[in-house]
Specification:
Helix content: 55-70%
Largest sheet: 2 strands, parallel
Shape: globular
Distance between the termini: 92 Å
Structural class: mainly alpha
Strand order of the largest sheet: 1-2
Strand content: under 5%
Number of strands: 4
Radius of gyration: 29 Å
Length: 617
Amino acid sequence: MAVKDRFFKLKLKLTDIKLKIKRAGPALCGKIRSVNSESIKHFLRGIIFGIKPLIFETPADLKNWNAKTAAGKIRYILLFLLLCVIFAAAGSLYSFTANDAFISFRYVSNAVKGWGYTFNPPPFEAVSGFTSFLWLTVLHGLWKAGITPPQSADLATFLFSIGQVILCFFFLRRVNMRPRIQRKSLLLFLAVCLILLTNRTFLAFMTSGTETALFNFLVLWWTFEATADKSGNPVYLSVSAVLLALCRFEGFIFIPASAVFLLFFIFHGRSKFKSLIAFLLLGSVWFYYGWLYRTYGSIVPNSVTAFYDRLFPDFGRDYILSFVLEYALYFWLFFFIIWAFFKFVIKRQSGFGVLFLLMLTFAAYIGFYLFIMGGDVLEYRPLSFFIPLCTLAGIKMISENIVSNIRPVLVFITVYILIASAIPGTHRALTKDLQTRRETEFLYRPVAGKADWFGFFAEEWDAAQKKLIYQGIGLRHQEHKILTEELLKTFPSREEGSRIKKSDNRLFAWDFVGVAGWVLPEANIIDLSGQNNKIAAGSPLKFPDRRLFGHERAVPAGYVQCFNGGNNIYVEPFSGKKNWRLLRAAPLSDGQIKGCENFWKSQINAGKAKSLRQRTR
């Protein structure tokens, strides 16, 4: 076809489209005029009568819920949409973004710019100061889709939190309850939702900007697959285990645990072919560890190296004790003893193998924090998945073997909520109005004598908190919230900070580098805490006998000054207003950066070798 003919054909099509648009206007107006009050009433009546059966004919037995019919699908959608609204409203009361979350945002920002997952762009050496590789990939994917941090992080944490609620639904759906309880099991799911809605830690980590909700979702998913019957697919167990290993360093615990579970499944009649595929999937995690070693020189994250010095069970014990007492997890221990006695002694039922392997897995996980890490700076971040997990386990034990009617179950749950809300609710009341860094720094508030009737073990909790808080462990939600807000007030906006280009080689050194690293995206940031700096991470402790978690490395004198005099970006933090400026500085070249890094790395390595020789004498 000639060009002239093609042009004429296109012109005809455009003319036809114009005519259709002109005719569409009057036709639409005619339809609008034809709509009267009766037709509107008829339409609304149809909606109401359509929804009415969905609501009033909702099965109270969770086993009768299915998505095979259109009504079933709509019922699922309505339920979880309603829960989304309720949890979003409750979570907004504790909404915050942790300073540490901005570290992940900076890593993703550098990857988007083509420098890879690194805290500082080249010529600085790549460092693995991020907490979660998987979380970086989630944020990176959302960035490519047009959603940037911190909004992308809030969206993802909310979705993974709702994912935990959905998993709770399916956990309860397959529990073998007593018949009279089973017939009203929907009430138990709503009770679980109420427990989560009144739990401060669960609500706080619906935001935070960290990977916590993702990790907790994966742990619940892994547990769901590990406890599945013979119809379960072992491949899903391996997938969740690999994702856990990619999500956090301690997630590697679920790799050998999954291998043991797969052997257990094979010996109990599961598909050998699927189990073999699952074993191969577990092996794929070594590709990730290989990439870590090639990129960063170690499979152990720098964030772990910076915070670990030696076994420190004192902190770990107080950290775990504080968590158990605050959320009354000891409440479920009483029911566990009764349940185990009925199930394995009186009824002599089988099935102890899966329970034993689960207990062994989570004991290894707790041991990691008890002996190696000693805790976490961000409240109960690494332990928070135990809240829905222990709740589900408690309801399962009560409804399977202990009572036969739903009323006692609901009474036990009510009592648990009262006990589990006493300490955190009192602490919240004492701290929620504190709005400055001076008021919230090392935020310790005793609750003994203020937690009313249900504040059991309040004095023991106060003692554990006092030890932890003043050494930088388990710092409370309000402290993290105000810290970030104060930093954002005093640092430049990201738009302003973006005017500093990589070629300027500007330098800022501090030990709270989350917000700083985000709002100064192309400035060189020296992390004196060590999490994102190998020199600081390899430095000795300031006070070997007194920990200050995350801020205890004695960075060598002269290290920061090596970079042409050190800081050349001035910021006055916690002043309540923006107060920053660029200082005069001699040009800093890439060669000087490499020279400083190599020199001080050799000094640190020499110091380690000397220390090792002294220990072995």
